[in-house]
# Entry
Amino acid sequence: MKRFLVLAAAGAAIVAVAAAAGIASLNGARADHHLANHVLLLSVDGLHQSDLAWYADRHPSSALAKLVRNGTSFANARTPFPSDSFPGMVGQVTGGNPKSTGIYYDDSFNHSMFPAGTTNCTGPAPGAEVTYFEQAARDQHALDSGQGLSGLPDSILRLTGNATSLLDPAQLPVDATTCQPVYPHSYIKVNTIFEVARAAGLRTAWSDKHAAYEVLNGPSGTGIQDLFTPEINSDAPTAGSSNDWTTDNALTMQYDSYKVQAVINEINGYDHSGTNKVGTPAIFGMNFQTVSTAEKLPTSNDLTGGYLADGTPAPLLQRALAYIDAKVGDMTRAINERQLTRDTVIILSAKHGQSPTNPAQLTRIPDGPILDGLDAAWQAAHPGAGPLVAFAIDDDGMLIWLNDRSAAATSFARDYLLNHDGVGNDIDGNPKAYTASGLRAAYAGAAAAAYFGVPAGDVRAPDVLGIAQIGSVYTGKKAKIAEHGGDNPADRHVALVVSGVPVANTGSNDTPVETTQIAPTILDLLGLDPNQLKSVQIEHTAALPLG
# Structure
């Protein structure tokens, strides 16, 4: 993946982002017929439905198998597209896709904003990178994002539950009207389940991998009362180390275990630190990264990562699945010990899958030279023109924002990509030819906007969208064997289980569903009105069919 940014002045319309993300009027009165008092949401990044079925079949007495048996398992669940963590998680708690939420990626571009650090906002906005990932932290090298805790990593549970305070405003895009930094919670266009729950007087908590996940607070900025966000891309295990928590699967497990302990503390009626008695939240949960890194890493801890030739999990991934099972078991035991079993529902899913799952399909493609070649071709055809590419994010698909948004320019970019052939490398690092920039389709201009369901010229939508061939992973290195973000089945076909005493035990359900349906389902279970969610109103997102 290359985060590729070149700023050039453009006559983009000035939009007041903070106003566009205006706070919804909430009326979260709770119905008397609610089925549950607590919903524990667990997102296991990278967990395909096939992974869960494989593990539960081979370990019938496992915690994961019990979840499947004691609820409804959706065999055809899909994440939003792009299948990035940010829109994936936002979808689960809003009921919306990017067309209503305005969230396309954790690292994206907006044609109507000024770059981070801008203090003079006169004239038309040139466009800006929207940096809602580790870069936005006060200190991206520190597990506590710069809070200044002593004794890290062991002291990480003392991290503040106010993740907004861990962000560096100098790293955030600047609104063209107010000339102020735009925090993630102000950028999202719709409200979240946390805001609806809080309006009804219910407690909320969540744990995720970057402080920028304060986006889940929603436009009010106050949806989550206890937001625990240890920085996963910080130096591990301590600042100054040569790797981060994702480069070694054992480190990823250690990292995830901090969040598991935070959730267990919350089950036991405390805040994430385990020191303040506040009551078990109505909506709470966490995001796991262990499966994701086990799918991406070729090897770690002397174990082979990803999948075997027959599509079954390789040893590293098998260990990761066993780790998830053990931690889910720890949480369910804590629920039982607190005698919360009869009024708690557990929803297990994933922000995204990972592709490819067949190692023979892997083609690593350096995307930097492709984008450089596109700029060179544009400038050769248009002497005196500046760079065409303003910004691109490429994992196993391509999202490209252009400085020139005309039909001629967007078509030029699409045609270049579809006619570019080259050489990448395979699972063993050997040369492997690719065609059409590793894409099976590309959409430009109005067609790209239509793919997402937004008007042509939308200031947040990419100008060119590339749908990757199965197996294409954009990287200039050889350190990963899978990625996500794209629109292939393995990117989006994830596990989804709704389980617990309050819900019907209906077994496997083959109905095609989307993970966006988790949001109205949670509100339904708690006796709250799903129509209080703006995305539900806009996209008519239905609750999952549990009966």
Remarks:
- The radius of gyration is 22 Å.
